[in-house]
Amino acid sequence: MDTYKKKIIFKLSLTNKFGLGHFFRCYRLSKTFKNNPKIFFIVDHLPKQISSYRLFNKLNFIEFYRYEKFKSQLIDYKKFENYIKKKDIDLLFIDDYRLDHIWQKKIKKNVKKIVIIDDLADRKFYCDIYINYKHKLENKKKIIEKLNKKNTKLLLGSKYSIIDSNLSIKRSYNKKKNIIISFGNSFNFKNLKIFINRIKYLKHNIYVSIGILSKNYQYIIKMSKKFPNIRPIHLNLNMDKIISKMDLYIGSAGNALYENSHIKLPSIFFKISKNQSNEQETLDELGHYFFLEKKYINKSEIIKLIELILK
Fold first, then answer.
1. Per-residue pLDDT of the chain (311 residues; tens, 9 = 90+)
2. Whole-Å CA distances, 161 to 15, 95, 219, 253
3. What are phi and psi of 102, to 5 degrees?
4. How big is the CA angle at 207 (ends 23 and 249), to the nearest 5 degrees?
5. DSSP labels for 255-307?
């Protein structure tokens, strides 16, 4: 007699332009399940870089919008309902800002449990479990309770952050430091050219993470041939071992806020999207004291700040 395998779906807004942050936290969650359940990732469009990457070869992806675009959550619901008919779904994870309680309530009759992963808390939800790991969000529990139905289990605060289990502290404490520059997987490096041209003169190892959807990064590859301290990390999606050896992080304030706090990695963060807003008191408690608007990245004072932190 065959043992029943749970069916788990991750529904997220991943395209060839954005959404990799959503995918990675869902992917990390998917690895925590035991007894080898059947797991599916429903995305808008699967980037070739993801489909061809060896680490994800065994994942089951379903593309909803390969030849069209997302138009409305009502149309999306009909597509989703048609796909999951008679599939007996045990768990549905939704990591998609476009879907609210209307979509979720309609689909609930077809799934046993709905889990929402959220950052914004800017709309109503209809789910069994709500996850939002912004630090000290438990102080806003009453507000979030009103956004959810009664009896929804709320997992609030940074203790629920989805962190790569392989992260650890492996710094060498040498005079020559290791600096990582990381602005996500779809960053336009044209916006960083002035900064890169300044930091290349520091006598430290400068690792530049170039994500799979990044643009206008070719000048960094060329620069590395003349300046050996500039070390591009191109198309590497498994960054945990590299991050663990760094002495300073410079980049966007996404999931790195919690990962860097976990391994006590000094960081200079830049806000590059609206969901990266954080109160300074919250950042202080996580051990992060430098959180700047993206317009400051190309200021000469940033290099002075880096030098001071390294000293």
1. 456 789 999 999 988 777 888 888 899 899 899 888 999 999 999 887 777 777 777 889 999 998 899 999 999 999 999 999 878 899 999 999 999 999 999 999 999 999 999 988 999 999 999 999 887 776 788 999 999 999 999 999 888 888 877 777 777 778 899 999 999 888 899 999 999 999 999 999 999 999 877 889 999 999 999 999 999 998 666 677 888 889 999 999 878 888 898 889 999 999 887 666 667 777 888 889 999 988 899 999 999 999 999 98
2. 24, 14, 35, 14
3. -65, -50
4. 70
5. THHHHHHHTT--EEEEE-SGGG---HHHHHHHT---EEEGGGTTSTHHHHHHH
